[in-house]
Write a structure and sequence with these properties.
mainly alpha, 2 domains, elongated, two-stranded antiparallel ribbon, about 5% strand, 6 helices
Length: about 190
């Protein structure tokens, strides 16, 4: 028996396994993008743009959205309730806030900075209670729209009925409104 000095080649997998392993996959959402990544829940081929890293691996955005739907229990009418409540509360509160901010002068800036986000948090809680504490994907957008509608309606009504008593909008009021809107938007997420 003679020993051969040539190294032996590594065993090759069968032809059908070799063809399956080198199969090029394309992302389901981006058909021009090659990928070797699959969603660990549904098995759909996804690229890195479509992949979301979770604690258990990469998942597609559709599976993530489906999993998050459990947390959103709001009905369609809840969005419109949020819009109406935000508009009504803002329309009533804005003339009072605007008057107080203008009357207090320089301290209006301090009041606006300190109380603006708290007022937004109160508005968010009023909206949340009015929809039965249900959460929805779009409630925050409807609340934002309602707040803007309430500000504009309040400005028009104030200009019509209280001409010249105090300005409808001031810089302090703008700061207050921005802080309140941002706080309400973040709480209603």
């Amino acid at each position: 028996m003679t020993l051969s000095s040539q190294p032996s080649a590594a065993p090759q997998p069968p032809a059908e396994e070799q063809a399956a392993g080198s199969e090029v996959l394309y992302c389901a959402n981006h058909p021009d993008t090659e990928t070797y990544l699959r969603c660990n829940k549904c098995g759909k081929p996804i690229c890195l743009k479509c992949a979301v890293l979770t604690e258990v691996g990469y998942r597609c955005k559709e599976c993530i959205r489906e999993q998050q739907n459990v947390f959103y229990t709001a009905m369609v009418t809840d969005n419109w309730i949020a819009l109406v409540v935000a508009a009504a509360v803002t329309m009533v509160a804005w003339p009072i806030v605007g008057f107080l901010l203008v009357v207090t002068g320089f301290f209006g800036w301090i009041i606006a900075a300190l109380i603006g986000s708290g007022a937004g948090a109160v508005l968010a809680q009023i909206i949340r209670n009015s929809v039965g504490r249900r959460r929805g994907r779009y409630i925050r957008y409807f609340a934002l729209a309602g707040t803007i509608v309430g500000l504009l309606a309040s400005a028009v009504l104030t200009a019509l009925f209280f001409r010249g008593l105090f300005p409808v909008f001031s810089l302090q009021g703008l700061l207050f409104a921005v802080l309140a809107i941002v706080a309400a938007y973040q709480i209603l997420r």
